[in-house]
Each structure stands twice: as structure tokens, then as C-alpha cells.
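Annotated sample (chain length 453).
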Amino acid sequence: MTVRCFRPVVVLVTVGALLWWGGESPSGEQTVQPRPTVYVAEIDALIHPASAEFVAQALATADAANAELVVLVLRTPGGLVDSTRDINSSIIEAQTPVVVYVGPSGARAASAGFLITIAADVAAMAPGTHIGAAHPVSGTGEAMDDTAAEKAASDVAAYARSLATQRQRNVRLAERAVTESESFTEEEALSAMPPLIDLVADNLEALIALLDDREIRRWDGRLEVVRTAGAQVETIEMNWRQRLLSAVAHPQIAVLLFSLGTLGLTIELWSPGAVLPGVVGGLCLLLAFFAFQILPVNYVGLLLVLFGLVLLALEMVTAAFGVLAAGGVISMIFGLAMLIDSPMPELQLGWPFILATMLTLAGLVAFLARLAVRAQRRRSVTGAAGMLGASGEVIDPIDSGGIGRVTTHGEIWSAVAGQSISRGTRIRVVGISGLTLTVSPDPVSGPGREGAS
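Output written by the structure step:
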């Protein structure tokens, strides 16, 4: 009887324990919060279409992963206004809050970088950095007339005011950065009333820590609280195509590509059928033209460089004994000195690069010109011209005024001579008329000279 009563009690206790444990498990799982994810993308180049594409892809990746935050680490001397607008549109339309961080110390976000900084949900800078100098310049690097310059500055200034107004930043300083090319240190930007930026952080880790539990105002006025404590940091890098396009957008790389492309096509025209120089030259020129589309190129300088390359190419073809090459080098030096018309140090070619490039090209042209001269001076070895001076041997005696036979170049020819020549005498061809050779005794006789030239 006792045993029968004890078994139902054990069953009830066991079932109750299982129900209690099963009911608590879901509640316990809900209390575990996943680690937030912060995506970091670095822009250390001119602002151009490849940069805009990279930013758009990075923000799309963060949105798809439901990230907590995206940090754009920005270092740039400026770039194209159209690409800047594309980047800002991607920032404004992103579902994930976007932080633009000008760093590390010593970096800057000038010109287009200034507009990107003030368009961010959160603008931050590292100590020892600066932003500003956003006055527009001509895409060719040449000075614009007063009307065009005023229109361009007014358009960019209005854009800067609209960004600063919507982000509740200092509109007056944003406009002055465009109209008066003013720059601001991190302290000046933060202490302004209202400020131009939101935070100053020593490094990326400190920035992420400062953003924890921070309330961020989005472009449409919504307030979002981001949590970055213990965040997992994921780095987004450019793909190979974007890295390639960013690399060729450097002035020095663009000049080298342009020079190599022109020389490659010249060599292909000089030696038709070589194929490789033409293919490489065409690719180099296409990449150079892409870079020149981005860079502030002075077309007078570009024409001087092109004229110099043409003179160098003519030197290889005509072998003018250095006259054309000297003119080409001088033209290219002047052209490279004025090719990039920009006050930005990052865009300057510099005399060491110019002189090193010119010496290399001059050496290459001198080598090719030497080969051309040697080829022109080399005696022909085929046809009638190739027979003159060839040595041979008499196989049928040649009487004075008569015709005999000789062997030369592995062939048997009829031959005449101004004197009698006996069989077995070594001879040298001094003329040719149709199929008859004019020969004379070879003053240097010796075995093994038949067919020599």
C-alpha cells in the first residue's frame, strides 16, 4: 500500500520539475543579448567614383548584417564633388548610423572630406587633425573665370549649409570653409557654437567606447541609441578592382601609365606584330585617362608631355643622334612641372620623381635608338645586296673576259672577272648583273670562309 502511494508522488514531482525547467529555459535564453557589431571602413585616398562605390558597398553590407554602427575612417586631400554627393547620399540613406572619424592624429579631411564629415550622423576627429578648405577648383586644375568660380563656390556653399543645417552643426563655419577656404582643428571644430563635430577621440577603440549608450539623431530626425560595449569590430576592405582604381588615381602612377602606354604603342607601330607592347600600352593609356578624369590636370602640361613623348618616339624611328630625344626630354620636364595644378602636397609630382622619370625614359629611348642605328648600318644578308662582299671559290676557271663558275652561299653562279682566276682560288663578289656575278680574287684566303659575309 505504501509502495503504491509513493510511485504517483514520484511521478508528479518529476513532471513538475520538468515543466518548471522547460518553462524557465526560454525566459533564460531571452535574457542573453547578442554582441553588437561595428563595421569599420577606411578611406585613405582621393574621393572619386571608386571611393563612392566602396562606401556604398560598405554601408549596404552593414545594413544587411543589421550592424549597430558603421565607422568611416577618413583621410583625404579632397576629390570630385559628384563622388562626394554620392557618398553623402549613401550615408543619408543608410539604415545603420554612420560615424565619420578623421584620424589617426596628423590626418586631415580637406575639401570633399569636409563635406563628408559634416554629413555624417556622428562627426569625430582625432587630436592633431583638421578639416576644411572646401573651396571648389576646376576639374582641369586651371583657373576659372570670375563668373564660373562664383557659381561653383555658391553651389558648394549652399550644399554645405544644407548639410550643416540638417545635422544641426555650425552653418556659418561650414559656409566659410567653402567660400573662404578656412580649415579648422579638432578643438576649433568642437568648441564652436554650435560645434562642427560631435566628438574628439584618441583612437578608434576610444571612439567606439565613447559612443556606447549615445543618442544619435538620424537625417530624418529620429533618435537612436547605439550600444557599443563589447562590440565585435569587423573591417571592410576594398576589393581588388577598387584598390586598383584608387591606386592609379595617384598623379605619379597616372604619369607613369601615360608614358608607358605611349611608348608601348610606339614600339608596336615600329615593330608591327609584336602584340604585347600594343596591348600593354593600350591598357596603360586607358588607366591613365581614368586617372586624368579624376585629377586636376592642366591640359597645356598634358600636351607638352605628349609632345615630348612623340619626339622620343621619333628619335627611336629616325635615329636623329639625340636631337629629338633632347627636345622630348625638355618638353616633358616642363609638361610634368605644370601637369598637376593643385596646392595639395599629395597631388604634387615633385622634382625627384620628374627627374627620375626623365632619366629612365631617356635611357630607354637611347637603348632603342642604338638598336635602330645598328639595324640601319648592318649590311643586308638577303637578295642582291646580300651577295656583295660574299666570299666563295672558283670551280671552273675564269679567263680574262670570259665566263666561269663559282660557288658561294651554297649555290653555283656564273661569274666574270677582270683577270684570269684559276680553279680553287678564293674569290669575293664585287658586283652582280642578273644571274652573273663579277668577282675578284680574295686577298684574304683561308678555309671555311665560304658563304661568310
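Annotation: Residues 1-6, 17-29, 139-143, 446-453 have pLDDT under 50 and may be disordered.
Annotation: The radius of gyration is 39 Å.
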